[in-house]
Amino acid sequence: MRTTLTTRRRGVVAALTALTLAGTIASAGTAHAESHRLDCLVDTLAYKVCSGKLTLQVGQRLEVDLVSSGGHQLQFCAEPHGGGIDLDCTGWVNPGASTQLVWHNGTAGPKDVQLIVGRKYPTTVLARGSYHVR
After folding, report:
1. Which residues pair with 68 in a beta bridge?
2. What angle do CA 51, 56, 59 make, to 5 degrees?
3. Residue 79 and residue 14 share a domain
């Protein structure tokens, strides 16, 4: 009798371990990291859309690395894809600064967003660097 219970427990533990591992692999496959080149001419008074649609899964972050912008400070925001109220923004970012968090998806589901960029002074600015979904 003891051997049968021990065997059953091992079987249950093995089955639960397999299910947990399968769930971990499946969820890791849906939330992958991506990096994109930032090469955006900011020449309008309003914020300029500088990305296509970016899908952020729950827990993912949109980050930006500004390498150059002619010495000008820029602000990066995440807004719903197609427009709407900004989800969050960076402060004013200097070129060459370290990676800046734009928005972290802490909602209950995936969100389609776009990266928009604004300038501090009314001059045309070429923003170069990269942005990441992690």
Report:
1. 128
2. 140
3. no
pTM confidence score:
0.77
Residue among 25, 17, 44 at smallest CA distance from 116: 44
> Which pLDDT score, from 0 to 100, does residue 21 have?
38
Question: Is 25 in the same domain as 66?
Answer: no
CATH number at residue 102: 2.60.120
Cα–Cα distance, 53 to 111 (Å, whole number): 10
pLDDT, tens only, 101-113: 999 999 999 999 9
| The token pair that represents 60 in the structure block | 């993912």
38 & 11 share domain: no
Which two three-digit tokens encode residue 117?
């960029």
Could you tell me the residue range of the domain that residue 14 belongs to?
Answer: 1-30
From CA 27, how far away is CA 64, in angstroms rounded? Answer: 25
Give the type of residue at 30.
Answer: T
pLDDT tens-digit map of 59-86: 999 999 999 999 999 999 999 999 999 9
Q: Please give the distance of CA 99 from its chain centroid, rounded to a whole number.
A: 12
